[in-house]
Each structure stands twice: as structure tokens, then as C-alpha cells.
Amino acid sequence: MHASLAIGIDLGGTFIKGGLIDADGAVLQRDSVETQANRGAEHVIARIADLVRRLAGEHRGHLAAVGVGAPGPMSHTAGVIYAAPNLPGWKNVPLRDLLSRATGVPCEIENDANAAAYGEYRAGAGRQVRDLVFLTLGTGIGGGVVIGGQLVRGKFDNAGEVGHMIVEPDGRPCPCGQAGCLERYASARAIGVRVTEAIRAGAKSALQARVVAGEEPDAADVQRAADAGDPVCRRIWDDACRYLALACCNLRHLLNPELIVLGGGLINAGAALLSCVQTHFDRVCWKIAPDAPQIVLATLGTDAGIIGAAALARESAP
Amino acid sequence: MHASLAIGIDLGGTFIKGGLIDADGAVLQRDSVETQANRGAEHVIARIADLVRRLAGEHRGHLAAVGVGAPGPMSHTAGVIYAAPNLPGWKNVPLRDLLSRATGVPCEIENDANAAAYGEYRAGAGRQVRDLVFLTLGTGIGGGVVIGGQLVRGKFDNAGEVGHMIVEPDGRPCPCGQAGCLERYASARAIGVRVTEAIRAGAKSALQARVVAGEEPDAADVQRAADAGDPVCRRIWDDACRYLALACCNLRHLLNPELIVLGGGLINAGAALLSCVQTHFDRVCWKIAPDAPQIVLATLGTDAGIIGAAALARESAP
Fold this sequence. Notes:
Strand content of chain A: 15-25%
Largest interface: A-B, 50 and 50 residues
Radius of gyration of chain A: 20 Å
Order of helices and strands of chain A: EEEHEEEEHEHEEEHHHHHEHEH
Low-confidence stretches of chain A: none
Oligomer: homodimer
Largest sheet of chain A: 5 strands, mixed
């Protein structure tokens, strides 16, 4: 049906990472190059094409497709990156067609969080299920929805923006223009920001000296301090988990997925994150029907994006 | 592909309503009987089978399927009604198989809000789109999700429970065990309850005399009083619209549907509801991407359920 191999690309502002992926989602080869984003879109596209050639190597003839996971705003359907905060000067770049021409292989582009969601579905935490919601907890919060084995893109290719679900009406302002977005409470960045704010407002904390020195603690610092009993860090870590639990509860009622997969840098906290979210979930969400999803950690790490991008591209290749 | 006609049944606690539905979702015949729920499941199923025979009439040979929309908790997949607040004594009734046997026609059962969602998708407000979310605003709030033309049921057949999405953390307690469910702020019932509470707590209102007399105003009373300038009714009506807008905003980000369809008794308020929800939506939801769904009123009224149940049953018939 499909040629067996595809290449997945993760297009970041600093590095372009790529992998040669087989039909089971296994990464056969891995390579990366600097993006050199400041040299413009044409230059970057040529670098992606070079990376594709290197990764394909002798398998060139068995290559079905190339899939690129990229930051938005972008459109899978149009094949266009409208803008990208990490890629200065990219405006309405028709990446799909330019890259297809440069490589001679059918290319697809996909929102990076959607690609990671699909990767976890095909080869990671979700490989036994058909329905899942994926949340990537990093600087921001992205996400992706898979229903009946299909990635949900929505009318404007903008589904899965879990980080901008409003979990606190009239809550913390978000650069997106809304107030109370999940991302403002439960991203790795937000946790550090909230601890910094609390300390500046006078709360005592083990992280005080660092904040006074102008540093912003990261989520790992906060989690370690919380674990050691620091009350401010405890409260803010716990609050982040509570908001994640509220989001999971709403996902349960709307889509009733089998699985909710948590990914991104924040899951380095492991059980300290998962058990805290689960405890809040069991407290805030109903018990009248045994329809709860399993909440689990992602298993593919940063490979999820290249595996998912490759799979999506292969499956839509002619 | 499918035989052209199907029968849709709306199984309520007081009446069983039915319709003979063609492949375009048009209602060719309509009929109803009392449920006589107190006489037990066997009796009610015989009454449904009689209604099916009457509705089919001379078209008996062209009948592809019978679809029943029923209140939950129930399972489409198992074909079982686990319990039904309006049908005393119904416990784990295998309605699908019993009714198939009684009628000699393939039967399917579906959550009533899901059936109505699918009816609006096939023949109502959503007939031009492939993706929509439907909310039915009545005594409670139910809902249904259609993606890519498919009804989303979820792992445990419990998707679309929009009324139990939490829109206010630690908010008003809900009989479901959660706090802050949408249903506690924006159902027709909740609006009347909140006005009653406010008046009992001392707020001045045109509806005061009725509340003192022990009546609970309904949403239509509240909307009329709000329209006439009553401040309490205005505030609570507006607040209901605001919570509906927050829910619509979250649906936009998660699923990015083309359409959000509002149905149920509350939409008798027409523009007083729709424009109020739209105004709040435009205020609370982002403007950074032009990916907003249209928010519209349902067009099929109480026919949505029988049209949807018939269509779902016909499409899954062998």
C-alpha cells in the first residue's frame, strides 16, 4: 500500500532534526543540522532537503514521503507556514510545495504538537488505542487530538490548542489576548513565572536568593523545592496539577477518550507530576460513570514529532 | 446502498414520539403514544414496536432500520440502557436486541443528545458542514460532537457531555458530584434557579412576587424580565451567556469545528440568546487567528432527535 520508509523532520528555530522512520514508527537513522534561520527560508529549505538526502541514503528508492512538524500558525491543508516566531522573516512560506520540489518526494507539513500527538498514537503511549488527547507541557502548552485513529485538524487546521482552553474565567492574562488559558497556569514556563511572582510579592522560599539575583527558576527547580517541602513551590506545583486535572476532566466529558497522554519537558518530573494530576482528577471529576480515561506519560520524548510527521506524510502519500 | 426509509424514536418518560424518515432526513410521518413507563420495560418495548408498525404502514418492506434516542446512562455499543431517571425500574435493559426481535428490523439505540446532534448535522443547521458541536440547552445541558461526518462516541459511549465541562473551578455544586459544571450556570433550569436564589437572598426583581409565592421562574420569564430591564434577571441571563461563550471558546480551541449549534428550549429566546453569547464569545476568545466557528441556532426543534436516530440506525444497518 505505502512504500515502507518515510522521513520525519522537526523544524525548530535552532536545529532541524530528522529521522528515517519505518512503517512501525521505529527510528532507523537520526541526524540534525543547524537551522541557520537568519539566512532566510530558501536557505533553510535547501538545508532540509540536504538532510533528507543524507537520511535517505541508499533507501532513496523506498522513500514514500517526507513529513515536517513545524511551529504555527500554519496550515497543513494549504501546506503553508503563515508565520513562525522562531523563523524570522518566514511569512506565508509554501513549505510543502517548495520542499516537495527540492526533494522530489511528496512532502506534508503539520503543526508540531499535532505531529507529536500522532507519533505517540502510532508508536508511543497510545499505540494500543484509537482515541487519545495529547498535551505537550513545555514553554507553552500544545496538544493534539486523535479520534478513531484519525488526527483531528478541524475546519481551519487549528484543533488541539489545548493550552488556550480557558480554565479560569477572568484569570491570568495570556499574550494570545484571552484570560485564564491553561498555558498560563500549567506550562513549565508558567510554573517558574508564578513562583518568581510569589517570591517578588514577599513569599518566603528556598528559591528566593536566585529570584533576587534576577533568575527565573524553571519547573524542575520548583518541583525539587516542592519535594523538599518549600511551601510556595508546593502550592504552585499543586495548583498547576489541579488545572491540568480540570482540563483532563473537560476532555473526558467532551471526547471520552481512552487515553490522555502528557508530554513535553514538564514530564521529566515523572510520578511527581502524574500522581499529582491524577489525585486532583479523582477529586474534581465525576464518579457517576466509569468512563475515565487513563492519564499517562508520553514515551517517545522528542522523537514523537519526527515519528508522527513521518507517519502522517506516509499515510497521505499517493 | 441503504434501503431508503428508517424510523426514528424519541423515548421519553411520558411520551414515545416516532417518525418515518427518508434518506434526506425529511419526516414523512409522525406519531406518538404514551410511554406508560410504570408498566415496565416489556410493556414499553411492545408499545414502541406497535408505533413502529403503524409508522411503517405500507412501507414495511422498505424499512432499513429503527433508531431510538434515549436518555442515559446507556451504551450504543452494548445496546443497553443501564438506567433511566424517567423510566422507573429500567436497569440494564438490552433495548436494542429486544426491539430488533419485537419489530423484525435492525435497531440501534443512541444517547438522545447525540441523536439530536446527528439530526442537526444531517438535516438541520449543520447540513452543509462536516464538523460541528451541538449543545442542547434544556433542563440540563447535553451535547454531541460530529467530526468528519462521524458522530464521536468515545471509548465508553459517553462523549458529548458538554454540560459537565467545568467552566468555574470550585463553582456551583452539581448533582453529578463535580463543582462548576456548565449546566449549573447556563441550562434553562439553572437560569430560573439562580434568579430564585438571588431574589430569596434579597435582590429586588419584577419576579419577586412569584418567587415569594413559591414559584420558580423559568428561563423564558427571566429573559422577558431581563429584556424589560430587570437588573437581577439581566445579570443572570448575561452570566449564562458568558459561560456558554467560554464553553464555545474551549470547543473552538480543542476541535476547531466549523459550527457550534445551540439547541433545546433555551433557544426559544432567539436573538436574545444568540447575540448575547456571540458578544461574550468575541470578548473572551482570541482574535489572533481567524479560526472561529459560526455559532448558530438549531433548526429542527424536537425533530432533531428522531431524524438523527433514524439516520444513525440506517447508516449502521447491514
